Amino acid sequence: MRRGQGPSVAVVGGSIAGCAAALALRRGGAGAVTVHERATGPLDARGVGVALHDDRYAELAASGYVDASMPWVQMRRRRWYVRDDAALSPLGRDLWTTPFPFRAYNWGSLWRELRRRVPADVEVRSGSPVREVAADPDGDGVLLRTGTGAPERFDLVVGADGYRSVVRAAACGDVRPEYAGYTAWRGAFPVERLAAPGLWPEDECAYVVFPGGHLIVYRIPEGSGGGRHANWVLYTTPPPGHAPAPDSPVSLPPGTAPAPLRDHLAYVAAELLPPYWGDLVRQTTPEELILQPLYDFTAARYTAPGMALTGDAATVARPHTGAGAVKALQDATALEAAMSGTSTLSAALAAYDADRAAVGRTMVTLGRRLGRELVERTPRWGDMDRTELEKWWGGLDGSGAFGGRSLTRRTG
Ligand SMILES: Cc1cc2nc3c(=O)[nH]c(=O)nc-3n(C[C@H](O)[C@H](O)[C@H](O)COP(=O)(O)OP(=O)(O)OC[C@H]3O[C@@H](n4cnc5c(N)ncnc54)[C@H](O)[C@@H]3O)c2cc1C
């Protein structure tokens, strides 16, 4: 499409996928682009850590979606620890160390930099929840309603509105997120709060495994200054009677986790984690604790006439894949390529769907496989040696999709 002469577009959602999609659309030749974001203020005060595989970063940087001005902490190694009361180190027994070429970001600064890249001629409307999206009965376009007034018409509506997407509901009907059966407890706080921050090397991502789950810990930039936060996420099954409703998992924001769920975390920290990591979890205040029940799904297709889905609106894979933000950014590069390489909107949508739907399915399948082994049916960690662990991981991620599928190998 010739630059600026393509379709008029509304993007619903202004988070990672929405900002990247707005950039992609303008580069791909769209005409006027409007972003509707439900939240009223900037999003960067919320969020904790997010990791990007070095190779996926390089591809996205080459496409012009990320760059070195976004602060990160370089990780190089992943060390697997298990509690062993005979272990000499408070970190636990070192089971296995593997290369781990990932960049750790503070979600807030990643979003802020993407927001800065949204071209100035894109109209961003904050505090603008989209209530309804529907095909225009009088023509080709799509009608979008934000309030009680008349709907606006666009040639294309892009759903970047997360897992409860109104655009997905219009494009594909009812796609129900499926509850994984367990929860992520998350937190982040300044590393200086740890009694011995130096014991845990800066470039090391710790995978602390226990019966029925695991804890992942890595450092992230604290935000604007040069400090570091210890960012952690622990996956395990909540105690009986405290599972969320299966078809409507809702995260519990900081400060709202009920006592039985906090107590369960305290039990895991005291009884199942090595002392250093148990202390780290205990250092998190209730105001820093986030609970996120896990779920996944993928839309049957990424497009419908006049509509396209990106990021979590299209597919949510379990976070064990280490690729949620990568997938959203890659969707944007694919949207740009599809728009640039075709002359009609319907051809662009067909190319985009062919490119991304299979990747979404691959990541959901990988997330389920990893979740089964890392949480639902954990092996007897302490009995495994390095050779067995290598074989075990190879069986889980033989195709190497962990951290995100390469842009040069989009399916399979
Ligand atoms: C504030 C925030 C903090 C986050 N922090 C982290 C983190 O620390 N680590 C991590 O791994 N992931 C985090 N995530 C999730 C992460 O961004 C996504 O999993 C992934 O990057 C894909 O992003 P997305 O833009 O598709 O979805 P999301 O990030 O979920 O964004 C969807 C956006 O759409 C908006 N929206 C929804 N419905 C409507 C509507 N009807 N009308 C208008 N706008 C609507 C939402 O307000 C939201 O901004 C966070 C998301 C948000 C919104």
Describe the fold and architecture.
- This protein is α/β, with parallel strands linked by helices and 412 residues long.
- α1 links the parallel β1 and β2.
- The two termini are 29 Å apart.
- 47% of the residues are buried.
- The protein has a nine-stranded mixed sheet, with helices on both faces.
- Helix content is 29%, strand content 27%.
- The chain has a domain of 184 residues: FAD/NAD(P)-binding domain, CATH 3.50.50.60.
- The site of flavin-adenine dinucleotide has 30 residues, from α1, β2, β3 and α7.
Categorize the overall geometry: elongated
Which hetero compounds are present in the coordinates? Answer: flavin-adenine dinucleotide
Structure annotation, total helices = 9
Structural class: alpha/beta
The CATH superfamily label of the domain at 9-47 and 109-176 and 298-374 reads FAD/NAD(P)-binding domain
Keywords: Monooxygenase, Oxidoreductase
Protein name: Monooxygenase
Organism: Streptomyces xanthii
GO molecular function, one term: monooxygenase activity
Defining key terms:
FAD-dep_Monooxygenase_BioMet, nine-stranded mixed beta sheet, Monooxygenase, oxidoreductase, monooxygenase activity, FAD/NAD-bd_sf, 412 residues, alpha/beta, FAD/NAD(P)-binding domain, six-stranded mixed beta sheet, binds flavin-adenine dinucleotide, single chain, 27% strand
